[in-house]
Amino acid sequence: MYKFKNFNTTNDFEKKQVYELRNNIEIRKWMFNSELISWNEHIKFLEKLKKDKSKQYFYVERNGLFIGVYSLTNIQNLIGQGGFYISTEAVKKKLAVEFIYNSIQFIFKYTDIKKIYGLEDLNNKNVFTINRLFGFYDKHKDYIKEIGGLKYRYGEISEDDFNVTSNNSKLNALIKYSKSIIYEKK
Prior knowledge:
This protein has about 190 residues and is α+β, with helices and mostly antiparallel strands.
């Protein structure tokens, strides 16, 4: 159902899909850098990724359709900062939980990463709810970091934590529901 493709192997069409999704106002408003990027900036970024071992970005498809991006940055000592953006259509179809679950599962199964950490914008209520479902942020409830005038909450999940979370009945019910949703390109 899900396919993950390293940005280093994306074709021109896939690069354009990522570029358009990344520049969507509903996506970029939650990013550390919420400015529009040019096509040339996008291509330069992709070229730099080929040599940068501290970052991994994945083009994510669901049933053959582009659904979003999952990234790992600041990779050191088998730990990376996770991040993602998912198409607004997929969010409307209630596929965010399934997307995140499959992305984290992929990272722990097919990369060397043993722990993912992240920063959650305190104003993003949707991410707050999803992160709690997955067990992020339970260990460092009061760790707040300010970046560019915005406040973020720190959280992490280890591979072992994820394996325990994977048995959560509420999470499994949401994933089972998501699998029944047909996601079609408009």
